[in-house]
Amino acid sequence: MPGTNLTREEAQERARLLTVDAYDIELDLSGAQGGGTFRSVTTVRFDVADGGGAESFIDLVAPTVHEVVLNGTALDAAAVFQDSRIALAGLREGRNELRVVADCAYTNSGEGLHRFVDPVDQQAYLYTQFEVPDARRVFASFEQPDLKATFRFTVTAPRGWTVISNSPTPEPGGADGTVWEFAPTPRISTYITALIAGPYHSVHSTWDGADGRSVPLGIYCRPSLAEHLDAEEIFAVTRQGFDWFQEKFDYAYPFAKYDQLFVPEFNAGAMENAGAVTIRDQYVFRSKVTDAAYEVRAETILHELAHMWFGDLVTMEWWNDLWLNESFATYTSIACQAYAPGSKWPHSWTTFANSMKTWAYRQDQLPSTHPIMAEIRDLDDVLVNFDGITYAKGASVLKQLVAYVGMDEFFKGVQAYFKAHAFGNTRLSDLLGALEETSGRDLATWSKKWLQTAGINILRPEIEVAEDGTVTAFAVRQEAPALPTGARGEPVLRPHRIGIGYYDLTDGKLVRTGGVELDVDGERTEVPFPAGFRRPDVILLNDGDLSYAKVRLDEQSLKVVTEHLGDFTESLPRALSWASAWDMTRDAELPARDYLALVLSGIGKETDIGVVQSLHRQVKLALDLYAAPEWRESGLATWTEATLAHLRAAAPGSDHQLAWARAFAASARTGDQLDLLQGLLDGTQEIPGLAVDTELRWALLERLAATGRADESAIAAELARDATSAGERHAATARAARPTVAAKAEAWASVVESDELPNAVQEAVIGGFVQPDQQELLAPYTAKYFEAVKDVWDKRSHEMAQQVVVGHYPALQVSQETLEATDAWLAKADPSPALRRLVTESRAGVERALKARAADAAAGA
Q: Which of 782, 804, 809 lies closest to 791, judged by CA?
């Protein structure tokens, strides 16, 4: 039985047989305030290529189907609706019409039609999330990206609500003004249709193009967040994206309006519904955040806007080309931040190198590593494939491709691609063909090595220097490490377009004094240098971060960088050096204690707040997972004392002060340190310039709860101060973080033994449950995890199950016993490929941590 899965072969056969024309969808949401189910009526018109009598199916996930009428003939609904599919037999050649009447269910999982009740006003708020296969939870649909159609929604909703969809919102009609009849959409895929409904607050404006076209813009959020909505800032970023994308893509924005809706309990960062983008409402900042948070939000806004072309206008034929959507949206969003006139974040490639790219490197070293163009056999495969390879490695490779063919030629190819395939579906070959034509480059070999193979290369400099300091030999050696155990494929050497930067110490600063750019291919590539060329203090491979590779420093460069990493005058070479050091730590080449020393020696000079916050996270992770157990507490003490010193020294009210306050709150451990947290919370102590606002208060309280200094009464009191949905999530985290047997049992039961929590609260509980300083309390849950995980996977929706599978894996129990328990479960449980992948990835983290701990212990011996 297929259940909710769909194989690629089934999709190909259905696409061969059917051409879908149009959907008319009627939804009755008038009872949404009470929840339960809603009436869904779908009429779909489609053509059949074969002669009469052909068979197919349409997808639907619903508690009840009342009617199925095919070409005017009523079918036995109970007989044809089985296993989330409605069987369609006896189709006639040419035009067919199907009508399905069903009761569909609201969800609390962030999938399908999600229903949320705001504790502030007790009103229900709805939004859809359909990627990958969840439009079928709301209406009967041919749920695959290449069966595009037009969609016309008619929605009945409570009076006074706002209803938003892909088409412009009409004035409500009907006898009592509760019916919204939307105009048909252009031809789009099912997964980017959308419906958002509720008493949302909104702000409106326009983007006015140089060609005289004006596109209506809307921003929506719940009224309880309206006071925090910085709409003009969001509009400014959006207009910047419209200006830059219109120029680079040379294709007019393809939809009638552009709404951005900040919605509650959203599983992802955002979703590119055509003309109606949904975004997690944590991006409406309730408290002070650093500029890095605004930069990340801007990248998300631009990423989704880029999707209106990459993904919505032109859509991949099948999910193996998901990267055509995600990698291009990622690359172009960051390029827009870096190059658009007036951008606030021209350093966006620094942020990319230090955050997204490290995500890609991590993903590419897991047993589940896969080519950018992944092999997607079915929907289960793609559901776990929204990963660091699809997004960040793909974007890195595109950045290299741009360097290889030239930016102008790249975008000329993109322009031809949009014009040739507008409102259609494509494969990799379609895009490469367009790029080959505009660039004159043969991309077949490049594609095979970069897009169709897995793994990561290592680049090392080989340099020989005479006694007088002049260089006598210089080359770049490329390595292709063996793929992780269990990964498919063979290691491969790839062509790289890289920069090599030369840096010298001048008045205590590392200043770029020269460099070259060249193509690296094969095992060894000679680097050209002039006669009498003197060796610079630092030689930095992949300067400019053009390629995707792990980079190592030669011995002299490493020595200088270790002493002067914070002294680079530019942010990108600093970020590349930080990233290389972190990668060496993860690879057990740099002991955790040495990584801590390196960070402490240079972080005080780091001006880029995004890099500072990345270093905070990485140091804490290194101490929790990669430090030798006998040294860990000493390392944590050193780190926590440093965070407090930097907090006290930071400029009052600065981003750095806030970042250091959060780092200190995450690690405070001694009595005096916890007393300071308590004093900041109750107002008896202060640090000049530090605003202890709502979100920072929760950060302080969650640490106090995790260390046993705050009990249930303190948590309840804070929730009374912040009686919002965000407050409820923070309270759930704090309760689960308490260091007691009872608190852990309660948290575990609420997530694993019950399925009643909504997605955001479940995530919050898991986050509080897993505390690095509570390993003895958590030890009994290793066995409980393996007893429960398969049942959770089999019975929960994908999003809810994945939270449990990944979040509750005993990653903090770094031991051979954890590996053996995992291997025993994998051998006997017969998990599905998707579940096996998630558990195997988690196991790889423990294996890596054991190696890193051994390296750290050896360094301390």
A: 804
How many Å apart are CA 217 and CA 593, to the nearest integer? Answer: 51
Mean pLDDT computed over 244-271: 97
Among 599, 377, 394, 370, which Cα is nearest to 488's? 370
The token duo for 45 is 């018109």
CB 123 within 8 A of CB 93: no
Q: Provide the annotated active-site residues.
A: 304
Phi-psi category of 653—alpha, beta or left, where left has phi over 0 and alpha has psi -120 to 50?
left
Cis peptide bond upstream of 806, omega within 30: no
Report whether 780 contacts 818 (CB < 8 A).
no
């050193």: which residue's tokens? 638
Report pLDDT digits (tens) over 203-224.
999 999 988 999 999 999 999 9
Q: What are phi and psi of 387, to 5 degrees?
A: -130, -175
The reply to whether the predicted model has a pTM over 0.90 is yes
What confidence tens digit (pLDDT) does each residue in 763-814 have? Answer: 999 999 999 999 999 999 999 999 999 999 999 999 999 999 999 999 999 9
CA 214 to chain centre: 31
832-843 pLDDT tens trace: 999 999 999 999
User: Which string of b and e fits 4-32 if b means at least 16 CB within 10 Å?
Assistant: bbbebebbeebbebbebbbbbbbbbbbbb
CA distances from 374 to 378, 385, 410 (A): 12, 8, 23
What letter does residue 67 receive in the DSSP assignment? E
Residue 563 and residue 216: Cα distance in Å, rounded?
A: 53
The token pair at 424 is: 């259609």
* Of 374, 387, 373, residue with least CA distance to 451: 373
For residue 570 the two structure tokens come to: 């530019």
Residue-wise pLDDT for 426-479, tens only, equals 998 999 999 999 998 889 888 999 999 999 999 999 999 999 999 999 999 999
Read off the pLDDT band of 273 (50, 70, 90). very high
Burial of 206 (0-12, 13-18, 19+ CB in 10 A): middle
Average pLDDT, the chain: 96
Q: Which helix (H) or strand (E) holds 822?
A: helix 816-829
Please list the alpha-helical segments (H only) found in 428-489: 428-439, 444-450
Given its phi and psi angles, is residue 56 left (phi above 0), alpha (psi -120 to 50 degrees) or beta? beta
CB-based contacts of 713, cutoff 8 Å, min separation 6: none
**598-641 pLDDT tens trace:** 999 999 999 999 999 999 999 999 999 999 999 999 999 999 99
| Number of neighbouring beta carbons within 10 Å of residue 630 | 11
**What percentage of the chain carries pLDDT values higher than 90?**
94
* 8 Å CB contact between 263 and 125: yes
Residue among 434, 435, 445, 430 at smallest CA distance from 406: 435
| Cα–Cα distance for residue pair 198/154, rounded to 1 Å | 15
CA distance linking residue 796 with residue 755, whole number of Å: 8
* Strand-strand pairing, 276-280 and 258-263: parallel
Those residues with Cβ within 8 angstroms of residue 407's Cβ, 6 or more apart along the chain or in another chain: none
Banded pLDDT at 2 (limits 50, 70, 90): low
Residue 509: C-alpha distances to residues 188, 351, 545, 560 (Å): 54, 22, 21, 11
Per-residue model confidence as pLDDT tens digits over 384-408: 888 999 999 999 999 989 988 899 9
Place of tokens 């001694």: 670
* Strands 550-551, 112-117: pairing kind: unpaired
**For residue 800, which amino acid is it?**
M
Residue 183 DSSP code? P
Q: What is the pLDDT of residues 750-767, one digit of tens each?
A: 999 999 999 999 999 999
DSSP 169: P
| Cα–Cα distance for residue pair 116/11, rounded to 1 Å | 33
pLDDT of residue 1: 37
A 10 A CB-CB count for 259 gives 24
